[in-house]
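Title: Prediction job returns without error message
Component: structure pipeline
Severity: low
Priority: P3
Assignee: unassigned

Description:
Job completed but the reporter wants confirmation the result is attached to the right record. Sequence as submitted:
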Amino acid sequence: MQKILNAPSAFVDETLEGIVLAHPGRYRMVGRRGIVRGDAPVAGKVAIAAGGGSGHLPLFLGYVGRGLIDGCAVGGVFSSPSADTMLDVTQAIHGGAGVLYLYGNYGGDVMNFDLATEYAKDEGIEVRTILGADDVASAPPERAAKRRGIAGIHLLYKVAGARAAEGGSLDEVEAVTRRAAAGLRTMGVALSSCTLPEAGVPTFDLPAGQMEIGMGIHGEPGVRRGPLEPADRIAEELVAAILADVPYVAGDRVAVLVNGLGATPREELYLLYRRTHRLLADAGITVHRAIVGEVVTSLEMAGASISLLRLDDELARLVDAPADSPFIMQA
Protein backbone atom coordinates (compact mmCIF):
# COMPACT_ATOMS: atom_id res chain seq x y z
CA MET A 1 0.00 0.00 0.00
CA GLN A 2 1.56 3.27 -1.17
CA LYS A 3 -0.35 5.97 0.73
CA ILE A 4 0.50 9.07 2.76
CA LEU A 5 -0.88 8.02 6.14
CA ASN A 6 -0.34 8.00 9.85
CA ALA A 7 -2.32 5.23 11.53
CA PRO A 8 -4.87 3.85 9.01
CA SER A 9 -7.50 3.85 11.78
CA ALA A 10 -7.07 7.63 12.15
CA PHE A 11 -7.39 8.37 8.42
CA VAL A 12 -10.95 9.78 8.45
CA ASP A 13 -10.70 11.83 11.64
CA GLU A 14 -7.34 13.32 10.72
CA THR A 15 -8.63 14.19 7.24
CA LEU A 16 -11.60 16.03 8.76
CA GLU A 17 -9.31 17.87 11.17
CA GLY A 18 -7.04 18.92 8.30
CA ILE A 19 -9.94 20.23 6.23
CA VAL A 20 -11.35 22.31 9.07
CA LEU A 21 -7.91 23.71 9.94
CA ALA A 22 -7.23 24.57 6.28
CA HIS A 23 -10.48 26.52 5.87
CA PRO A 24 -11.15 28.39 9.13
CA GLY A 25 -14.51 30.09 9.22
CA ARG A 26 -15.78 28.14 6.23
CA TYR A 27 -16.34 24.85 8.06
CA ARG A 28 -16.94 23.81 11.64
CA MET A 29 -17.21 20.40 13.24
CA VAL A 30 -20.31 19.18 15.07
CA GLY A 31 -20.40 15.91 16.93
CA ARG A 32 -17.74 13.37 16.06
CA ARG A 33 -17.82 13.47 12.26
CA GLY A 34 -20.20 16.21 11.23
CA ILE A 35 -19.18 19.22 9.10
CA VAL A 36 -21.40 22.28 8.67
CA ARG A 37 -21.11 25.75 7.16
CA GLY A 38 -19.30 28.17 9.40
CA ASP A 39 -22.35 30.46 9.39
CA ALA A 40 -24.92 27.72 10.07
CA PRO A 41 -27.77 27.85 10.82
CA VAL A 42 -29.07 30.36 8.29
CA ALA A 43 -32.32 31.69 9.73
CA GLY A 44 -35.37 31.14 7.54
CA LYS A 45 -33.58 29.10 4.86
CA VAL A 46 -34.32 25.49 4.03
CA ALA A 47 -31.25 23.53 5.09
CA ILE A 48 -29.75 20.82 2.88
CA ALA A 49 -28.00 17.90 4.57
CA ALA A 50 -26.02 15.07 2.98
CA GLY A 51 -23.68 12.35 4.09
CA GLY A 52 -22.08 9.02 3.42
CA GLY A 53 -18.79 7.22 3.57
CA SER A 54 -15.36 8.84 3.34
CA GLY A 55 -13.08 8.25 0.38
CA HIS A 56 -15.08 10.24 -2.18
CA LEU A 57 -13.79 13.82 -1.86
CA PRO A 58 -14.99 16.31 -2.87
CA LEU A 59 -18.31 14.50 -2.39
CA PHE A 60 -20.16 15.58 0.76
CA LEU A 61 -17.54 17.74 2.51
CA GLY A 62 -16.65 19.63 -0.64
CA TYR A 63 -20.22 20.72 -1.25
CA VAL A 64 -20.81 22.36 2.11
CA GLY A 65 -21.08 26.06 1.31
CA ARG A 66 -23.22 28.88 -0.03
CA GLY A 67 -25.57 27.83 -2.80
CA LEU A 68 -24.84 24.17 -2.04
CA ILE A 69 -25.49 22.05 1.05
CA ASP A 70 -25.39 23.23 4.63
CA GLY A 71 -23.87 20.21 6.34
CA CYS A 72 -22.92 16.58 6.06
CA ALA A 73 -22.30 13.53 8.20
CA VAL A 74 -19.24 11.45 7.41
CA GLY A 75 -18.70 7.75 7.98
CA GLY A 76 -15.63 5.57 7.72
CA VAL A 77 -14.12 4.86 4.32
CA PHE A 78 -16.95 3.52 2.14
CA SER A 79 -19.19 3.08 5.20
CA SER A 80 -22.27 4.93 6.44
CA PRO A 81 -22.27 7.74 9.00
CA SER A 82 -24.12 7.18 12.24
CA ALA A 83 -27.66 8.38 12.86
CA ASP A 84 -26.39 10.31 15.88
CA THR A 85 -23.94 12.28 13.74
CA MET A 86 -26.68 12.99 11.21
CA LEU A 87 -28.88 14.33 13.99
CA ASP A 88 -26.02 16.55 15.22
CA VAL A 89 -25.71 17.98 11.70
CA THR A 90 -29.47 18.42 11.36
CA GLN A 91 -29.74 20.35 14.61
CA ALA A 92 -26.75 22.53 13.72
CA ILE A 93 -28.08 23.61 10.30
CA HIS A 94 -31.81 23.89 10.98
CA GLY A 95 -32.80 27.51 10.51
CA GLY A 96 -36.52 27.06 11.13
CA ALA A 97 -37.64 26.26 7.56
CA GLY A 98 -37.06 22.50 7.56
CA VAL A 99 -34.29 20.23 6.32
CA LEU A 100 -33.90 18.26 3.09
CA TYR A 101 -31.83 15.09 3.29
CA LEU A 102 -30.14 14.47 -0.07
CA TYR A 103 -27.82 11.47 -0.30
CA GLY A 104 -27.02 8.35 -2.32
CA ASN A 105 -29.21 5.26 -2.47
CA TYR A 106 -27.20 2.79 -0.36
CA GLY A 107 -28.73 0.48 2.24
CA GLY A 108 -26.66 1.54 5.25
CA ASP A 109 -27.12 5.23 4.50
CA VAL A 110 -30.87 4.82 4.07
CA MET A 111 -31.19 2.96 7.36
CA ASN A 112 -29.23 5.52 9.38
CA PHE A 113 -30.74 8.59 7.71
CA ASP A 114 -34.24 7.20 8.28
CA LEU A 115 -33.38 6.76 11.94
CA ALA A 116 -32.02 10.33 12.08
CA THR A 117 -35.28 11.53 10.52
CA GLU A 118 -37.21 10.00 13.41
CA TYR A 119 -34.86 11.59 15.92
CA ALA A 120 -35.28 14.97 14.20
CA LYS A 121 -39.06 14.71 14.32
CA ASP A 122 -38.82 14.16 18.06
CA GLU A 123 -36.92 17.47 18.18
CA GLY A 124 -39.65 19.24 16.19
CA ILE A 125 -37.60 19.46 12.96
CA GLU A 126 -39.37 18.67 9.69
CA VAL A 127 -37.24 16.53 7.37
CA ARG A 128 -37.82 15.45 3.77
CA THR A 129 -35.65 12.92 1.92
CA ILE A 130 -34.55 12.58 -1.71
CA LEU A 131 -32.23 9.77 -2.79
CA GLY A 132 -29.68 10.13 -5.55
CA ALA A 133 -30.20 7.09 -7.81
CA ASP A 134 -28.68 8.04 -11.14
CA ASP A 135 -26.55 4.96 -11.98
CA VAL A 136 -28.20 3.31 -14.99
CA ALA A 137 -25.85 0.31 -14.74
CA SER A 138 -27.06 -0.75 -11.31
CA ALA A 139 -30.67 -1.68 -12.16
CA PRO A 140 -33.00 -1.69 -15.21
CA PRO A 141 -35.62 1.06 -15.65
CA GLU A 142 -38.40 -1.07 -14.14
CA ARG A 143 -36.35 -1.26 -10.91
CA ALA A 144 -35.01 2.29 -11.00
CA ALA A 145 -35.73 2.75 -7.28
CA LYS A 146 -32.92 0.25 -6.60
CA ARG A 147 -30.30 2.22 -8.52
CA ARG A 148 -27.18 3.53 -6.81
CA GLY A 149 -26.41 7.21 -6.45
CA ILE A 150 -23.11 8.24 -8.02
CA ALA A 151 -21.56 11.37 -9.55
CA GLY A 152 -24.80 12.94 -10.78
CA ILE A 153 -25.73 13.85 -7.21
CA HIS A 154 -23.37 16.82 -7.62
CA LEU A 155 -25.96 18.37 -9.95
CA LEU A 156 -28.74 17.73 -7.44
CA TYR A 157 -26.75 19.58 -4.78
CA LYS A 158 -26.51 22.52 -7.17
CA VAL A 159 -30.24 22.52 -7.87
CA ALA A 160 -31.37 22.07 -4.26
CA GLY A 161 -28.79 24.45 -2.84
CA ALA A 162 -29.60 27.20 -5.34
CA ARG A 163 -33.36 26.96 -4.81
CA ALA A 164 -32.91 27.05 -1.04
CA ALA A 165 -30.59 30.06 -1.33
CA GLU A 166 -33.29 31.86 -3.34
CA GLY A 167 -35.65 31.49 -0.39
CA GLY A 168 -37.72 28.58 -1.65
CA SER A 169 -39.94 26.76 0.81
CA LEU A 170 -39.30 23.16 1.81
CA ASP A 171 -42.06 22.08 -0.59
CA GLU A 172 -40.51 24.08 -3.43
CA VAL A 173 -36.96 22.88 -2.82
CA GLU A 174 -38.13 19.28 -2.62
CA ALA A 175 -40.25 19.55 -5.78
CA VAL A 176 -37.57 21.04 -8.03
CA THR A 177 -34.93 18.60 -6.75
CA ARG A 178 -37.21 15.64 -7.44
CA ARG A 179 -37.81 16.95 -10.94
CA ALA A 180 -34.07 17.19 -11.49
CA ALA A 181 -33.51 13.68 -10.12
CA ALA A 182 -36.12 12.29 -12.53
CA GLY A 183 -34.09 13.57 -15.49
CA LEU A 184 -30.61 12.65 -14.24
CA ARG A 185 -28.65 9.62 -15.43
CA THR A 186 -25.02 8.47 -15.05
CA MET A 187 -22.89 5.67 -16.48
CA GLY A 188 -19.27 4.96 -15.59
CA VAL A 189 -16.18 2.91 -16.35
CA ALA A 190 -13.41 1.71 -14.03
CA LEU A 191 -9.81 1.09 -15.12
CA SER A 192 -8.22 0.12 -11.79
CA SER A 193 -9.03 -0.76 -8.21
CA CYS A 194 -8.48 1.26 -5.05
CA THR A 195 -7.18 0.40 -1.58
CA LEU A 196 -8.95 1.18 1.69
CA PRO A 197 -6.40 2.41 4.25
CA GLU A 198 -7.43 -0.07 6.94
CA ALA A 199 -7.51 -2.99 4.50
CA GLY A 200 -4.14 -2.39 2.88
CA VAL A 201 -4.96 -4.41 -0.24
CA PRO A 202 -6.93 -3.55 -3.41
CA THR A 203 -10.71 -3.72 -3.04
CA PHE A 204 -11.05 -5.79 -6.22
CA ASP A 205 -8.89 -7.09 -9.06
CA LEU A 206 -8.98 -5.40 -12.46
CA PRO A 207 -5.96 -6.47 -14.54
CA ALA A 208 -3.93 -3.99 -16.57
CA GLY A 209 -5.38 -3.56 -20.05
CA GLN A 210 -8.92 -4.26 -18.86
CA MET A 211 -11.88 -1.99 -18.08
CA GLU A 212 -15.23 -2.60 -16.42
CA ILE A 213 -18.27 -0.72 -17.69
CA GLY A 214 -20.79 0.23 -15.02
CA MET A 215 -18.67 -0.53 -11.95
CA GLY A 216 -19.85 1.33 -8.83
CA ILE A 217 -17.82 3.78 -6.78
CA HIS A 218 -17.24 1.15 -4.07
CA GLY A 219 -16.26 -1.57 -6.52
CA GLU A 220 -19.77 -2.91 -7.07
CA PRO A 221 -19.97 -5.12 -10.18
CA GLY A 222 -20.60 -3.48 -13.53
CA VAL A 223 -22.37 -4.74 -16.63
CA ARG A 224 -19.38 -6.03 -18.54
CA ARG A 225 -15.58 -6.38 -18.38
CA GLY A 226 -13.33 -6.38 -21.43
CA PRO A 227 -10.20 -4.97 -23.06
CA LEU A 228 -9.53 -1.27 -22.61
CA GLU A 229 -10.97 0.61 -25.60
CA PRO A 230 -10.26 4.06 -27.10
CA ALA A 231 -11.76 7.13 -25.42
CA ASP A 232 -14.28 7.70 -28.22
CA ARG A 233 -15.59 4.16 -27.99
CA ILE A 234 -15.94 4.40 -24.21
CA ALA A 235 -17.85 7.67 -24.49
CA GLU A 236 -20.11 6.18 -27.14
CA GLU A 237 -21.04 3.23 -24.93
CA LEU A 238 -21.67 5.35 -21.85
CA VAL A 239 -23.73 7.97 -23.68
CA ALA A 240 -25.73 5.34 -25.57
CA ALA A 241 -26.74 3.70 -22.29
CA ILE A 242 -27.93 7.03 -20.88
CA LEU A 243 -29.83 8.09 -24.01
CA ALA A 244 -31.55 4.71 -24.15
CA ASP A 245 -32.74 5.13 -20.58
CA VAL A 246 -34.33 8.58 -20.99
CA PRO A 247 -36.50 9.47 -24.00
CA TYR A 248 -34.49 12.48 -25.19
CA VAL A 249 -35.69 14.34 -28.28
CA ALA A 250 -34.01 16.82 -30.58
CA GLY A 251 -34.17 20.26 -28.99
CA ASP A 252 -33.59 19.07 -25.42
CA ARG A 253 -31.05 20.90 -23.26
CA VAL A 254 -28.74 19.16 -20.81
CA ALA A 255 -26.03 19.75 -18.28
CA VAL A 256 -23.13 17.35 -18.84
CA LEU A 257 -20.80 16.15 -16.11
CA VAL A 258 -17.66 14.17 -16.94
CA ASN A 259 -16.29 12.99 -13.61
CA GLY A 260 -12.92 11.48 -12.74
CA LEU A 261 -12.79 8.74 -10.11
CA GLY A 262 -9.56 9.86 -8.44
CA ALA A 263 -6.61 8.82 -10.62
CA THR A 264 -7.64 9.88 -14.12
CA PRO A 265 -5.84 12.88 -15.65
CA ARG A 266 -8.11 15.73 -16.60
CA GLU A 267 -6.83 15.54 -20.17
CA GLU A 268 -8.45 12.11 -20.46
CA LEU A 269 -11.73 13.47 -19.10
CA TYR A 270 -11.73 16.12 -21.82
CA LEU A 271 -11.26 13.39 -24.42
CA LEU A 272 -14.47 11.81 -23.13
CA TYR A 273 -16.24 15.18 -23.10
CA ARG A 274 -15.13 15.88 -26.70
CA ARG A 275 -16.87 12.78 -28.02
CA THR A 276 -19.87 13.21 -25.71
CA HIS A 277 -20.45 16.75 -26.96
CA ARG A 278 -20.39 15.62 -30.59
CA LEU A 279 -22.72 12.68 -29.93
CA LEU A 280 -25.25 14.98 -28.29
CA ALA A 281 -24.97 17.52 -31.09
CA ASP A 282 -25.63 14.78 -33.64
CA ALA A 283 -28.80 13.90 -31.68
CA GLY A 284 -29.96 17.52 -31.65
CA ILE A 285 -29.35 17.87 -27.90
CA THR A 286 -27.83 21.17 -26.70
CA VAL A 287 -25.23 21.29 -23.96
CA HIS A 288 -26.22 24.18 -21.70
CA ARG A 289 -23.41 23.67 -19.18
CA ALA A 290 -20.44 21.32 -19.09
CA ILE A 291 -18.57 20.32 -15.94
CA VAL A 292 -15.33 18.35 -16.34
CA GLY A 293 -13.29 17.31 -13.32
CA GLU A 294 -13.40 15.33 -10.11
CA VAL A 295 -16.66 15.75 -8.22
CA VAL A 296 -17.16 12.22 -6.82
CA THR A 297 -14.04 10.09 -6.45
CA SER A 298 -13.25 6.62 -5.17
CA LEU A 299 -9.88 7.08 -3.47
CA GLU A 300 -7.24 6.38 -6.17
CA MET A 301 -9.49 4.44 -8.57
CA ALA A 302 -8.84 5.18 -12.24
CA GLY A 303 -11.88 5.68 -14.39
CA ALA A 304 -14.63 8.12 -15.16
CA SER A 305 -18.36 8.61 -15.48
CA ILE A 306 -20.65 10.68 -17.66
CA SER A 307 -23.85 12.26 -16.33
CA LEU A 308 -26.64 14.01 -18.20
CA LEU A 309 -29.27 16.19 -16.55
CA ARG A 310 -32.25 17.18 -18.67
CA LEU A 311 -32.99 20.89 -18.15
CA ASP A 312 -35.99 23.17 -18.29
CA ASP A 313 -35.73 26.94 -17.78
CA GLU A 314 -35.86 26.71 -13.98
CA LEU A 315 -33.33 23.89 -13.73
CA ALA A 316 -30.98 25.71 -16.10
CA ARG A 317 -31.15 28.80 -13.90
CA LEU A 318 -30.43 26.79 -10.77
CA VAL A 319 -27.53 24.86 -12.30
CA ASP A 320 -26.02 28.20 -13.34
CA ALA A 321 -26.56 29.89 -9.95
CA PRO A 322 -23.54 31.06 -7.90
CA ALA A 323 -22.07 28.52 -5.52
CA ASP A 324 -19.11 28.76 -3.21
CA SER A 325 -17.18 26.28 -1.08
CA PRO A 326 -13.45 25.68 -0.56
CA PHE A 327 -13.72 22.92 -3.19
CA ILE A 328 -15.93 24.61 -5.78
CA MET A 329 -16.60 28.17 -6.88
CA GLN A 330 -19.15 28.97 -9.57
CA ALA A 331 -20.21 32.46 -10.51
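Comment from assignee: result matches the submitted record. The domain at 184-320 is CATH 3.30.1180.20 (Hypothetical Protein Tm841; Chain: A;domain 3).
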